[in-house]
Amino acid sequence: MGTAASSDPGLIRVTLVDDFFETVILDNIVEPDNARKQGTSLKGKAGAREEIWKYVGPHTLVVGHGVNNDLRSLRWIHTLVVDLYVTKFGRVKLKEAEELKLKKAEEQKLKEAEAQSEILASQNGSKDIADLKTSNSGTVTTPNDPTATTDQPPCVRKPGNLSLKTLTKKYLDRDIQTQGKKGHNSLEDAIAARDLVHRNVVDLIGGM
């Protein structure tokens, strides 16, 4: 894809790869809708859709990365989609939620320990209960101790880079999109997205 002057995604090339056999089904340049001449390339969005629909039906599962952008550039609505970006983002958010839950549990334990220390100090007639507060590690804290725990909102870690290039390098140890500003190879991207989805499925099954 490219970007038009209106900032809308522009369709440049359409590539389809069979998910099971990695067979290249379709790999064609797409002419602009208002092109005066037409060679062996597909004629505009309508021509690209017609060619795609020869192989993709309403019950065909479409796999990709950021598929919403591809569908939008094609002006195509398809409901059976596995979007690598969405699945990876979902797993990142799930992991963050689990980490946040554990952090809150630790903070609750710390508060309970501090409350218990205050009760014991009160029973013993201590006037300076601050010196009796301890952290989970058992380190004594004082009012002037910079390591003393304060009630601050938890810092939620931001999701990592979920670009296709980064995910491919991280999980497949494969370099793609190495041409810089010259653009991407849609066939290379399609195969990478396919392989990453397979890897994601294997990881999910292994984690059950």
From TrEMBL:
Gene3D superfamilies in the cross-refs: Ribonuclease H-like superfamily/Ribonuclease H
Ranges annotated as biased composition (Low complexity): 139-154
A GO CC term assigned to this protein in UniProt: nucleus
Coiled-coil residues: 95-123
Keywords: Coiled coil, Exonuclease, Hydrolase, Nuclease, rRNA processing
A biological process term (GO) from this entry: ribosomal large subunit assembly
Annotated spans, Disordered: 124-160
Ranges for domain Exonuclease: 4-206
MF term (GO), any: exonuclease activity
Protein task: Exoribonuclease involved in ribosome biosynthesis. Involved in the processing of ITS1, the internal transcribed spacer localized between the 18S and 5.8S rRNAs.
Protein's recorded name: Exonuclease domain-containing protein
